[in-house]
Task: structure prediction
Amino acid sequence: MNRFLRCCFPALLLISLQPFAQNGKSTDPYYQTSEVQPVMVQYDADRGVLSRFYTVINSPERRERFRKLYNDYLKQLLQLDFDKMKTSGKVDYILFKRQIDNELRILDTEEKEYMATYKYTSFGEPVYQLEKLRRRGTSMNGEEVAAKLKVLQQQLLLATASVEQEPIMDMPLALRAEGTVRGLRSALKSVYDFYYGYDPQFTKLVPEPYRMVDSLLGAYGPQLRNKGNKATLQKDDGSGIVGNPIGREELIRQLRYEMIPYSPEDLIGIANKEFAWCDAEMLKASREMGFGDNWKAALEKVKNSYVPEGKQPEMILGLYNESVEFLKKNDLVTIPPLAEETWRMTMMSPRQQLVSPFFLGGEVLQIAYPTNTMDSALRMMSMRGNNPHFSRATVHHELIAGHELQGYMNERFKPYRNFRTPFWTEGWSLYWEFILWDAKFPKSPEDRIGMLFWRMHRCARIIFSLNYHLGNWKPQQCIDFLVDRVGHERANAEGEVRRSFTANYGPLYQLAYMTGAFQFYALKKEVVDKGKMTYKQFHDAILKENNMPVEMVRAIITNQPLKRDFVTTWRFYDK
Result:
């Protein structure tokens, strides 16, 4: 029997690893909770209500209230008996403490930067006081409010004039000062919107001074931002993409937070090793297609297999059906019928396709394909970049058993775990590309090229994103790398780089795909390949623990001994 499908294993060991009966129901009535869960649920509710009450960004009141919240919950957490907890509870403890510690660190940074820029925003205290009274509808004396605003107007005029004489600030300070002014402006607007039209005296006396102050605040914030040291910002290299490289020290800090015990240089080295494997496999497929070692010519043939405009949704649905049938036939993961029933499609707008040139998934599958507003060159690149062989390689990534199944399970199993990380989210979905490659899911050399294209793309993401944040590469170099090394259409490469550095993704997001997949694959070797669990039990167990750093998934599934001062040590890449 193929090793991939082998299901012989010690029954007793399975029972200790997986608290689920054959029907998928938990045999442990307390499976959905832990010793830390009640504290975490209360924390989420408290944090939510405080976020809705204290809305003024960078205000001292908001900062101190949240600092109290975090310290109160840290105290509660430290009072729990860690040593008596089950592994799952210890994981919750470690991750919840990590979360609170990080929130306190963020507040400390905010306060430090706020105080360093206080001389630019010291006029704001009356605004904070008015907003505080507004929350409970305290009656306002319109004459007094108007007088305060007139004083504030004079202070802003002086600040606007004097700030030009101030020295250049570090960019983080300039952005903090701008954010504080933006918070003051929103606070003042909330006061004005509440009383204007309802309080006759306020409505008569306040509008004119309010409009003057609002206008001045609107101009003053950008003025402060422009005092930032632009030498620390990346300049446009001709690509039109301007981001904010974070540097090696911050990369390492964020990697440690995500429980990745590798340096940026280590990860680039790993990606290059994987690239070499992809190169060798790409040459094999190219030779089978009759192109010899000219794999780019083989890739061109694959790209030109695109379907006509208007036919992409139909093609994607066919690929989805084939993918799910394969998962079921090989009994690889439990697929709840409702998860199959409720995913749906939508079409991406041309604007969104500028940053997302390929289809995206989850409960809603977003399809990228040409529209009538695109010129002929963009239309062709979109179709070529979303050809059937490329799409066949990733439909399971975006739907089942990838993002759609992830989201479905996250809402139903241990939803109190709000430890979201792309290493779990994207790593899991890419891991399935590894597994299906091993299982001979690609039927032809064209299919293999489709899968290899994406695997090379994930390698490239590690290389170009880390080199960018290390300050080694500019965006245009990243674009060229994707075109030359992976074979991307240029417009799609530009969209990928734009998405990486200017959209709402963290600096580690792009490298998390393959790095997280390596983690899941290493855990699979440790558990499934050694006969301790079947593929299905392994995959179901992961999905029922919810989103978290993969090392903590490993701790739960393999019952790792954990200490409350846990430090990441798992060297998961062994090629």
Q: What stands out?
A: Confidence is low (pLDDT under 50) at residues 1-18, 20-24.
